[in-house]
User: Fold Proteasome subunit beta from Nitrosarchaeum koreense MY1.
Amino acid sequence: MSNNVEEKILHGTTTVGIKAKDGVVLCADMRASAGYFIANNNTMKIQKIDAHAGLTLAGGVADAQNIVDILRYHSNLHRVEKQGPISIHSLARLCSLIFHQNRGYPFMADILVGGYDANGPALFNIDMFGSVEQKSYVTTGSGSPVAYGLLEEEYRSDLTVEEAKKIALRAVKAAIVRNIGTGDGINIAVMDKDGFRLLTEEQKKAVIEL
Assistant:
């Protein structure tokens, strides 16, 4: 990967995904930057794909949004044709295929896909080359070295969603403090047997002091 491409993907974001025993947590900061210029301080980097699935965006906003639209379309189509939700693994494979088909003019994005289906919680990381990795926990973006430090220390395989929320928020908060490209608040979403839910400000503050 060239330094130029790597900078485009890694600069200005921290996203975190954690698979708990009863669900998946996705967490991200809210800053969109253009170089060292803060383009937007209220960017939604967590997107709902379907009632049971979501993703986080790192990289080019337009490229990432295009991927979100394609995944939503196919997820809705599957729900209509098959009378049920698409599996999280299938969403991850579809995302991989989108990246792979556009490798001549690659999408500058790094995606975390998570959700809860008939097989339980699942979390995947898909990079711009279409590589798919199933993860227990993962972080992307320029603040990821800081976030990984906390995740590797705190993660356990028997975490509950409630515990995972606290760890994810702390990891992104730590990245905001120590990374120039990350900042301006945190969004967090939970996907479990009750579906996709984006936490309110009050719910976030009940977990940790932001």
In short: The chain has one domain: 5-197.
